[in-house]
Amino acid sequence: MVLIVSAAAATAALTGIAVRSATDKRVATTADLVSARLIARSGIEAALQVIAEDGSWRTDFGVNETFSYAIHPGSADVLITDETDGDLSDDTDDPYTLTSVANVNDAKATLRVTVTPKASTYRERVLAAGPIRYWPLDETSGFTADDLTGNQNAGHTNPGALGDLTGYDGGPAALMDSAADFSFVPHSPDYLLDQGTIMCWVYCSGDATGDQTILAKTRGANQQGDFILTMKWGSLDLFVTFDDGDSKSFDEKSLGAITPAKWTHVAITFGDDVRGFVDGVEQSKSGGKKTNTASWGTAGGAAPGNSHGFQFGAAYKSIVPSESVNGSVRDVIIFDSQLTENEIAAFLNAENADVAAETIIPEDWAWIVN
Asked: Which of 71, 100, 125, 185 could hold 119 in an S-S bridge, CB 3.0 to 4.6 Å?
């Protein structure tokens, strides 16, 4: 009996040792896997730091690149590839993928993330935000003004004036110094907006007599729902006007003066109120809208809304164009939402542009099951 009990006790003791050993091994494996995951992430962060510090990293890396890191208590290999065409060096706009494989003893973790390069120019940043229209007005010939969204091209009245000035970005711009030299686009139902944003770049030499029109959506005097962005009274003082569709009275906001012989960015937002921005900084804000005052659409019951075409660089105040800008207008853009000051400023400042940032949010990190 004693021998039997002793044998049973010995068996139980050995079993307990075996259980503890297996448990210890499982704990060690779990700890190694956690470490491997941390190391895989650290490997990607290290590779991203190399990319951030090397302005010519695509050329330096070539088709693809691998980095190996020894990170206690294991290691990580990070492969950087171009999933679009397989070559990192041939196109700076292609997204790139980092795949990090980390090992700690028998544990292995694989982490993958794809990075979309930030937009490097004003145009790229704006297009990334999804405008409904974008007319660069940078043609050097012809009567067609391309719409970069592909929705509706505009037109030029005088191809001979195209390319006579240099734009804010160094590209060509038309010289719109007479009522015969402007650009236009017919009305579309897309423009019956109860809230929206229109913005552009404007240049004026400073020599002015009378009013100078930058943007207009009008046809004849005191017509329902007219919209005009202008410099008034022979000055460089900016004013934005929305016509009240019911009473034919004008709601006019002052935006301050622009600097002569210098390209200036101007944005107008409308909806709950009317706001004006010069070079990304808010200059004027109205109270709440009344009837159709802050809208091209049918807000407040003012029908049928603004159904006029657009003019850029002049205005149809009567049956003929007049009040041309002594300079140029470039990059006319429309959004179907009322953008904020930060969103507008972000287009002008690449360092602060949320739409352009190479941000990787945690949900975008993909763990690969081995």
From this structure: 125
pLDDT at position 319 over 80: no
SS (H, E, C) 66-105: EEEEEECCEEEEEEEECCCCCCHHHCCCCCEEEEEEEEEC
Give this prediction's pTM.
Answer: 0.67
* Mean pLDDT estimate for the chain: 82
38 burial (CB, 10 Å; 0-12 / 13-18 / 19+) is middle
Q: If pLDDT is split at 50, 70 and 90, which confidence band does 250 have?
A: low
3-state secondary structure 32-60: HHHHHHHHHHHHHHHHHHHHHHCCCHHHH
- Two tokens at 230? 């202008």
Which parts of the chain fold into alpha helices (H)?
Answer: 2-53, 57-61, 122-128, 341-348
What's the CA gap between 225 and 206, in Å, rounded?
A: 30
- Compute the distance between CA of residue 115 and CA of residue 96 in angstroms, rounded to an integer: 5
pLDDT at 342: 93
